[in-house]
Amino acid sequence: MNTIFGIPTPALYGQILIGLINGSFYAMLSLGLAVIFGLLRVINFAHGAQYMLGAFAAYLLLNWLGINYWLALVLAPLAVGVVAVIIERTMLSRLYGVDHLYGLLLTFGLALILEGAFRYWFGAAGQPYAAPAQLTGAVNLGFMFMPVYRGWVVIASLVICIGTWLLIEKTRLGAYLRAATENATLVQAFGVNVPLLLTLTYGLGAALAALAGVLAAPIYQVSPLMGTNLIIIVFAVVVVGGMGSILGAIVTGYVLGVLEGLTKVFYPEASSIVIFVIMAIVLLVRPAGLFGREE
Asked: 3-285 has which CATH code?
C-alpha cells in the first residue's frame, strides 16, 4: 500500500476530503457572519441557530409536506431569511449605533430560545435526512472512492461562496451596501433606501446559514445542537480571516478545514484545538486577521 510520510494514502485522501467538506460549511457560515458584521456591524450569535433552522426546515418540508431536497434548497433559505428579516426589523434595527455587545447579547439570547424550543419539540437526538437518489453512491477517482453527495457539497459551496463574493464586490447593489456601511446618510441622500438594504443584508446572511444547514442535513443528523457545536469554530474562522472580510471568510474556511483534517492524520490529539491555536497566533501577529483591515 502506498504511503505518504508513513500514512496510507487512502486514509490521507479521506481526511483531506473530510477537511474539504467541513471547510465548505466553515466557509459558508463564516461568509454569512462576515456579510452581516461587515455591513451591519452586528456580531450575529444566532447564526448557528439559523443554520439549524435551515436543516430542520428541510426535514419538516420532507416529512410534513413531502417536499423533496431540491425544492428545500430554495424554500428553506427563503423561510429562514424571512424570519431573519422580521427579527432585524423588530429587534436588531433598534441596536444600530450602539455598542456591538448589545447585538451579540440579543442574538445569543435568540439562539438559546430557538435551540431550547426545538429541543422541547424534537428532543436532543438527531433526526435522519436522506440524500436525494441522484446524489447517492460513490465515484472512483483512481486514488480513492468519493461519495457523490460529499463531492456535490464541496462544489455547491464553492459556487455559492464565489457568487456571494461577486454580488458584494462586483455589482452596483454590493457597492451600495458597502457605501452604506461607510456613510449611510450620504448614500440615503442619493435616493437609496438604506434601512431596506440593511434588512435584506441580514436576511441574506441568515439565508446563507440556512442553505448550509440544508446541505449538511444528509451528512450530519438534523439536531437542535448542530449549530451550537459549530458556531464557536466558525467565529474562530471569521477572526482568522478578518472580521467583515468576505474573501477572508471563504479562503480561511476552506484552508482551516483542510488543516483540521490533516491534523487528524498526523496528530489526532490536536485536531480539536488546531483552529484555535492558529487563531491565537494570527491575533498575536495580525490582530485584524489575515484579510482584515486595520482600523
From this structure: 1.10.3470
pTM confidence score: 0.91
Q: How many angstroms separate the CA atoms of 244 and 262, rounded?
A: 27
Domain edges within the chain = 3-285
- The cell for 93 is 434595527
Please, are residues 62 and 73 in contact by the beta-carbon 8 Å criterion? no
Print pLDDT tens along the chain (295 aa). Answer: 566 555 666 667 778 888 899 999 999 999 888 888 877 888 889 999 999 999 999 999 999 988 999 999 999 999 999 999 999 999 988 887 788 788 889 999 999 999 999 999 988 888 899 999 899 888 887 767 788 999 999 999 999 999 999 988 888 888 887 777 667 777 788 777 888 888 888 999 999 999 999 999 999 889 999 988 788 899 999 999 988 788 888 999 999 999 998 888 888 888 889 999 999 999 999 888 888 766 5
Nearest 5°: the CA angle 262, 264, 266 is: 70
